[in-house]
Prior knowledge:
Layout: H1 2-14, E1 18-20, E2 32-36, H2 42-51, E3 57-59, E4 62-66, H3 75-83
Antiparallel strand pairs: 1-2, 2-4, 3-4
Helix pairs in contact: 1-3
Amino acid sequence: xxxxxxxxxxxxxxxxxxxxxxxxxxxxxxxxxxxxxxxxxxxxxxxxxxxxxxxxxxxxxxxxxxxxxxxxxxxxxxxxxxxxxxx
Length: 87
């Protein structure tokens, strides 16, 4: 779960997102990645990602992606593609 969350975080950072990182080190990290894209309202990001088949939510002005043991291995690549990372 942590490895998948780290991959999701890398994908959103490549897309230019700001990542909320309240933990002090990897051992404190959970499977949640909260981010926001400059110039795009979180609600618009959630809608855009939902249209791409990705399930995320809006929480307190951030987009929240949660990984689980069943999160597909291709989720980070799908998220990166939906966000236009690397374009």
